[in-house]
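Q: What residues go here?
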């Protein structure tokens, strides 16, 4: 996928149909996934358009992982999941990004990889409340 068709780079209507921008971190952009079948699911997307993690310089890679760690710490504080899962795919979207998925015992996909079956879409107001909580914790 070239940057001409990358919704993370273009920040177009495809991106807007899937997620909401929460904020910019040091080496990435943070998004709330509109499918909240796993409450608190977000995406950390590299600011640099690359396909594979090894294409990042060491400092970019370290910075990206710091962003992931910070985001995970914030999600843990807000949502108190039993475990946080991390997923990197990119088969279809060739812009390096990581799904951060809070998981809860006795709820959907516990003990297995998350999936998008049976999506849950929150209201605009509910999404705004989640984003406000995340932004507030990030700024603390």
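A:
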């Amino acid at each position: 996928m070239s940057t001409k068709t990358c919704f993370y780079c273009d920040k177009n209507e495809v991106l807007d149909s899937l997620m909401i921008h929460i904020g910019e971190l040091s080496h990435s952009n943070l998004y709330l996934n509109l499918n909240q079948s796993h409450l608190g699911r977000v995406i950390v997307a590299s600011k640099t358009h690359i396909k594979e993690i090894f294409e990042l310089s060491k400092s970019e890679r370290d910075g990206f992982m710091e962003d992931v760690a910070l985001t995970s710490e914030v999600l843990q504080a807000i949502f108190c999941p039993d475990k946080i899962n991390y997923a990197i795919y990119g088969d279809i979207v060739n812009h390096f990004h990581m799904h951060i998925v809070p998981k809860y015992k006795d709820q959907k996909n516990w003990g297995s990889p998350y999936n998008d079956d049976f999506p849950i879409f929150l209201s605009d107001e509910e999404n705004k409340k989640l984003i406000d909580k995340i932004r507030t914790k990030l700024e603390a």
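A: Context that may help when evaluating the design: The CA atoms of residues 36 and 97 lie 18 Å apart. The chain is about 35% helix and 20% strand.
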